[in-house]
Amino acid sequence: MIRESTVKLHMNNVLKKLKVKTRYQALAHLLQKNTLAARAKVQTASKINCSRITAFTPHFGGHS
User: Fold this and answer.
1) What pTM value is reported for the model?
2) Do 18 and 29 form a contact (C-beta atoms < 8 A)?
3) Is the residue at 27 inside a domain?
4) Rounded Cα gap, residues 46 and 11, in angstroms
5) Is-contact 55 45, C-beta < 8 A?
6) In this predicted model, which residue has the larger pLDDT, 50 or 38?
């Protein structure tokens, strides 16, 4: 078992590395970063005429 203070220490280190102040900002940052990375993979694959794309592209409601 780990202490609450240990969890807080590690969370604060993560927040500093991401340059955000809250866990919610960290989540939003990472979701945006992952979405952009997935889009970049799709664009790169389409440029080289790949017929099969395995990049993960999350959908947040709306039409797909």
Assistant:
1) 0.52
2) yes
3) yes
4) 38
5) yes
6) 38
In a domain, 63, yes or no: no
d(CA 58, CA 10): 27
In this prediction, residue 11 carries a pLDDT of: 93
Task: Residue 35: count other Cβ atoms within 10 Å of its Cβ.
Answer: 15
Q: Collapsing DSSP states into helix, strand and coil, what is residue 29?
A: helix
Cβ neighbours around 11 below 10 Å, total: 12
The answer to whether 57 touches 42, Cβ cutoff 8 Å, is yes
Q: Please give the residue range of the domain that contains residue 29.
A: 4-47
Query: 45-60 as b/e, with b when 16 or more CB fall inside 10 Å?
Result: eeeeeeeeeeeeeeee
Token duo for residue 55: 């990049």
